[in-house]
Amino acid sequence: MSASNHAAAFALPATDADGRKNLVGLSRDELEAEMLSIGLEKFRARQLWHWIYHRGATDFTVMTTLAKPVREKLAETYAVARPTVVRDLKSVDGTRKWLLRMPDGQEVESVHIPEEDRGTLCVSSQVGCTLTCRFCHTGTQRLVRNLDASEIVAQVMLARDALGEWPAPPDGRMISNIVMMGMGEPLFNYENVAKALKIVMDGDGVSISKRRITLSTSGVVPAMKRCGEELNVNLAVSLHAVTDELRDIIMPINRKYPLKELMDACRNYPGLNNARRITFEYVMLKGINDSPADARALVKLLDGIPSKINLIPFNPWPGAPYERSTDKAIQVFGDIVNNAGYASPVRTTRGEDIMAACGQLKSASVRLSAADRAAIEKVLAEKDAALVG
Ligand code: SAH
Ligand code: SF4
């Protein structure tokens, strides 16, 4: 089949489940159970897995290793659906952001960041976020719900459709890496994230290795160990402050899981060694956390933990209460950390013109009228109260 035919038959048009049950996001066991439930053999699940996750098929008619009556039977009950793409934005630097609408009308964003030798897909785990980190746009979103496994996997499927990367190559060029760094706190939705990542990591399907997957957490201490043991993906921790005093303010989750507990959980993250380090993310906020003394305290805090430090220049959003540190401050900070022996690359800002950079994602439109602002403040206060309580 020619490449263009392949794209037409396999990836597009994205199907709507139209009342049928969507097979995307079911585990292998669940898929087998579905086959048995409609009187088909168990091994059909294996065939379907290949077509859905390796070939990217969205239509049963192209699944030619299945007999026609089997395909027809499947199509009566099931669909291989995709979310609707509401908006598809491309940055001048090649970064791409999709706003996806789920069947219940809720929306999330995924971002693709192409680089010379690889491509990273930034995946969301929740609609909005229940946390309210003061520097993060997602934290100001009112509506929050967990994404289910199918909605998480679907972001990867959709990106592969759009980038034309089916069948899933062993070492994807466009999507070689996945970061759970989109909207939401992945460890507050652990079950669905774990189920989705197991599907994405499966070698007979999408086949992205755990070494190329990074999960970022704001520090949900009780879930970190489980994440390491069960998924064994790379861990990134949003640190952003070196004292409880400041972290309590800019990341309210710190009031529940303070630095000492967080650092212990990092130290005990399964599988850590010098070749496999935790990435500590540190957003550079002008005059807030970017002094040389902060840099020295950071070095001290990480002592004994195999770590990398990722300095992220603050990305502004409408109404944000902070500013980006100066280049000079970032350089001085980075030098101190580097001289202490930690790799500390400054994360290049990508996709800023389409609001796709770290911390800029938010699916509802922002209208900053006084009334809106007041409403947002009220919701933030409620979320805060729930967190502390
Ligand atoms: N909720 C998870 C996953 C989001 S990852 C977490 O917080 O780790 C997104 C990364 O971008 C996190 O490190 C987050 O702290 C950071 N971030 C949030 N807002 C930002 C902003 N405005 N500028 C730069 N980085 C930001
Ligand atoms: Fe949520 Fe992460 Fe944003 Fe904090 S930084 S509000 S945890 S998405």
Describe this structure in words.
- It is a single chain.
- A 9-stranded mixed beta sheet has the order 3-4-5-6-9-10-11-12-13, covered by helices on one side.
- It is elongated, with a radius of gyration of 22 Å.
- Helix 6 links the parallel strand 9 and strand 10 (213-217).
- Helix 2 packs across helix 3 (44-54), helix 5 (149-163) packs across helix 6 (190-201) and helix 10 runs parallel beside helix 11.
- The model is unreliable at 1-15 and 365-369 (pLDDT under 50).
- It contains 12 helices and 13 strands.
- It has 389 residues and is of the alpha/beta class.
- The chain has 2 domains: 25-79, DNA polymerase, domain 1, CATH 1.10.150.530; 84-388, Aldolase class I (TIM Barrel, Alpha-Beta Barrel), CATH 3.20.20.70.
- The protein binds S-adenosyl-L-homocysteine and iron/sulfur cluster.
SSE map:
Layout (H helix, E strand, L loop, with lengths): L2 H9 L9 E2 L5 H10 L6 H11 L13 H10 E2 L4 E7 L5 E6 L5 E8 L4 E4 L3 E2 L17 E2 L2 H15 L13 E4 L9 H12 L11 E5 L3 H10 L3 E5 L5 H7 L8 H9 L10 E7 L7 H10 L5 E7 L13 H13 L30 H19 L1
Parallel strand pairs: 1-2, 6-9, 9-10, 10-11, 11-12, 12-13
Antiparallel strand pairs: 3-4, 4-5, 5-6, 7-8
Helix pairs in contact: 2-3, 5-6, 7-9, 10-11
This protein binds S-adenosyl-L-homocysteine and iron/sulfur cluster (SF4).
The site of S-adenosyl-L-homocysteine has 16 residues, from strand 10 and strand 12.
